[in-house]
Design brief:
The complex is a heterodimer.
Chain A lengths: L1 E5 L3 H12 L3 E5 L3 H8 L10 H10 L3 E4 L2 H6 L3 E4 L14 H13 L4 E5 L7 H10 L6 E5 L9 H6 L4 E4 L3 H11 L9 E4 L1 H32 L3 H9 L20 H14 L5 H13 L2 H10 L3
Parallel strand pairs in A: 1-2, 1-4, 2-3, 4-5, 5-6, 7-8
Chain B lengths: L7 E5 L14 H11 L3 E5 L4 H8 L4 E2 L3 H5 L4 E4 L11 H7 L4 E4 L6 H6 L3 E3 L15
Parallel strand pairs in B: 1-2, 1-4, 2-3, 4-5, 5-6
The chains are: A alpha/beta, B alpha/beta.
Chain lengths: 308, 138
Amino acid sequence: MNIAVVGTGYVGLVTGTCFAEMGNHVTCVDIDANKVEKMRNSIIPIYEPHLDVLFERNIKQGRLQFTTNLEEAVKDATIIFLALPTPPGEDGSADLSYVLGVSSQLGRLIRDYKIVINKSTVPVGTAEKVREAIAKTCTVHFDVISNPEFLREGYAVDDFMKPDRVVIGTRSEMAKKVMSDLYAPFVRQGNPIYFMDERSAELTKYAANAFLATKITFMNEVSNLCEKVGANVDAIRIGIGSDSRIGKRFLFAGIGYGGSCFPKDVQALYRTSQDYNYDFKILSSVMEVNETQKTVMVEKLKQHFGGI
Amino acid sequence: MGEFSRKKFAVWGLAFKPDTDDIREAPALYIIRDLIAAGASVSAFDPEAMENVKRTIGEVIHYANDPYEAVQDADALLIATEWALFRTPDFDKMKESMKEKVIFDGRNLYDLQRMAEMGFYYNSMGRETVSPQIPAFS
């Protein structure tokens, strides 16, 4: 299949490279001409184990191409992935200006049936907003669907090539068919492709990240309590992790979660809840605890070296 | 002059987790910010993330070529990211070069008993603090 990937950040690069590896023809678009030039010369702009080998191979074999020209990228592609940044705005909500900006441009460029897929983590209702932005100037039939990405940094290639599950948010039968075909080679072991409505798919991604951030934060609080009562958090971790309802993974106490996803997504989900007049109390606690946890070691150091 | 003036801290790990050079919202950077503000000097090592940190905060800390250079003359070692490389270090080599045998481990990489036997003051997360004077409960 011919695929366009708009945006060559972390998700865009992994998505583009892995679909090319599966035999598709992928054109990645970015507005940064300098970056595009480098990628054309097989220089990969991010560090991710094992991605470089696939990146170079697919460029060399002509299945992975780069351009700054959106029209050229989408001309022959039925499938258009949007993998654009959604940075937190001043109020913590996700800034959709990149996503909606590209959508408006797409409206003028689409001349036959296309599936526009939100791959980036976007708030509930974004598929509808993208549809409206495209529809303003577009006269042909198209679908806008949600397909959140669950890959982990550091394991991105493996996670993308063998996902635990694929989540597709669409009610269009045509889009379902195309997405089933597209993802079939990635789920040969029998992992599921779940179809649901757009809003549920959008919220699934936030719920997953917020749940994981909460799981870590819970263990960090258990850890802080352990220090007060003289217990060992690692013993407790093993003790509770063997319960299959809890699970062994993601129970390690530490110095707070970070990265590009958890902090941003927890904040954005909290903000979305507020927008719908719901006070998602556990999330505000998670954010508060994590802020403190990041510098708990400094407090320990001050105690240790205090008075010297 | 802050609480940590004339103190030198080594920091192992800058990325927010292992196997990435991503430093966005990384706890290590919050810790370094507070240490510097309190007057400490910091020598850090990370297998992948040092270039990104250099671009973000510049030369306010020293960027070591390996974990052992980072701990040279340090008053304490702080472990912020659980890179595989940090899990089985050469403790004897560290003991020789550190000013104080003090480790604050934010990722619980080491065995309590072993650290006490090796002569370290070892403070980790949610576990008892051990030192040669206070060996691990066994």
